[in-house]
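Continuing the batch. This is chain 6 of the set; chains 1 through 5 are on the previous pages. Same settings as before, nothing changed between runs. Recording input and output for traceability.
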Amino acid sequence: MLKKEIRELCKKYFPEEYRLLKSIPGIGDRAIAVVVSILRKFEGFKRAKEVGSFVELCPSPVESGSSIRGKGSIKKRGSRYVRQVFYMCALSAVRSNPYCKDLYERLLERGKSKTEALVAVAHKLLRQCYGVLKSRTPFRVVDKEVTL
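Output for chain 6:
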């Protein structure tokens, strides 16, 4: 019931943003609600990189000089709820979004853990949302071979 109410409110007050964000495979109503409410449609951000840093979905390396290099992780300073929502969207996007699926498989081949790969996919989804809203064009999949 609450999910339906959130969807209806987003459709009523943010119809253009709802349509644009819904075009991204893997983005659901909760993520749309987070983008338009908590992230304020990215109005205070000049670049997508700033959004990732604000939410703290960026990996942070652990380094101390040249001798200590630990395993990186995401920081816990940003909004925990936003991270959770985009992580759950990443689980869906790995199956439905070809760009996210490609990234996920590439990271697994490099030896990253599934969690690390999913965090990277969540960050990619956040950047896709930013790009769609800033350009005001719906997301579309280009049919071309991705070269590495």
